[in-house]
Amino acid sequence: EVRLVESGGGLVQPGRSLRLSCTSSGFTFGDYAMSWFRQAPGKGLEWVGFIRSKAYGGTTEYAASVKGTFTISRDDSKNIAYLQMNSLKSEDTAVYYCTRAKGYSDYWGQGTLVTVSS
Amino acid sequence: EIVLTQSPGTLSLSPGETATLSCRASQSFSSSYLGWYQQRPGQAPRLLIYGASSRATGIPDRFSGSGSGTDFTLTISRLEPEDFAVYYCQQYGSSPVTFGQGTKLEIK
Asked: B58 CB near a chain A CB, below 8 Å?
């Protein structure tokens, strides 16, 4: 059974950093790209970015809204994808989801809430 | 950036009826890169359809997708109580990946 579990969310002050983790199981993690999405309270879905598998260079792409402040990485030995979020702003408040990516996202974690507030 | 516009914003139907949800793109793209997701309150989204018309694993055949170019449709036949949720279309063929704003399917 494919399982994705996000962790690391919480309350953080504006300007601070936070790192989210996505621990995966039930599939060969290294064979897949991984994506991050977010959903602000009461709003729709927004793509944050993704990281390709090592077979495709392990390269990343980001939404314009987070480029330069968020970084996605992966540790294939631990089956974990990370989302490093720096210089957080109130508008980054959202539930953050990681997904297994095949272009589309066929498996989603349950999400972790990040609240940016003083 | 490809902008996706979903209609209607809210659809009110009764169980047993058929729902037709629309997703229109600001520019044409390959139907290979169009997906539909269902999100129930308090839950993560769930993939229903990929490649415009292929059902994801475990999705009942009451759900069907169609379309090409700039116009795509999700059809849900014989609505069940658990189908009342928000539905999003997504294009994943070009960066940035984008979603429609969602259609809320509510019980009439």
From this structure: no
CB A18 within 8 A of CB A10: yes
Cα–Cα dist A29/B43, whole Å: 23
The neighbouring-strand residues paired with B75 are: B20, B64
A105 → closest Cβ in B39, B47, B98 = B47
Closest residue in A to B93 (Cα) is: A103
Q: What is the average per-residue pLDDT within B2-31? A: 96
Minimal Cβ distance to B44: which of A47, A61, A110:
A110
Band (B31; pLDDT cuts 50, 70, 90): confident
Q: What is the pLDDT of residues A2-27, one digit of tens each?
A: 999 999 999 999 999 999 999 999 99
Which two tokens mark A108?
């989603």
